[in-house]
Specification:
153 residues, 4 helices
């Protein structure tokens, strides 16, 4: 079965991504952002966020936003982890594995860059998002979901 590609997004993709996210309620905008999706996305990109889009017929049908997590001084320096900030799939494209494929592409990208895993804040997360991330292997860990990769021996 053919699957549309998942590609990295740039500022040129913001209008199409904003159109995809028009139905997102304000509290569910990336990083708890408020306001117009174009502004929220442009701001996130300028602050180092990365976006992956699942495209069908050259139109984004799903998007995942992530960034590298700044580790606290109490966490191990070698434990580089990514923060999954937001995942959204157009309602008519849900239940087709789009979000699962976005997470798989995200994991492949961060693992190739030396990540030890990823986490997502649990506060404000929908039950469906939490279930999706648990199916991807994340475990509940103090108001967030976290997935650690197995390190090669």
């Amino acid at each position: 079965m053919f699957h549309p590609p998942i590609t990295a997004c740039t500022e040129a993709d913001i209008p199409a991504l904003a159109g995809l996210m028009r139905g997102v309620q304000a509290p569910r905008l990336p990083c708890g952002g408020r306001g117009v999706p174009e502004v929220v996305l442009a701001s996130a990109l300028s602050e180092g966020a990365r976006l992956l889009a699942y495209r069908a017929e050259a139109v984004p049908r799903g998007v995942l936003m992530w960034r590298w997590r700044k580790e606290s001084s109490t966490e191990r320096a070698e434990a580089r982890r990514a923060q999954l900030d937001h995942i959204w799939v157009e309602p008519s494209w849900r239940r087709r594995g789009v979000a699962r494929r976005l997470i798989a592409a995200f994991e492949a990208e961060i693992a190739a860059q030396g990540a030890s895993g990823w986490l997502a804040q649990g506060e404000g997360m929908s039950a469906a998002s939490g279930a999706l991330m648990r199916r991807a292997g994340a475990c509940a860990c103090s108001k967030r979901l976290e997935k650690r990769f197995q390190q090669p021996a």
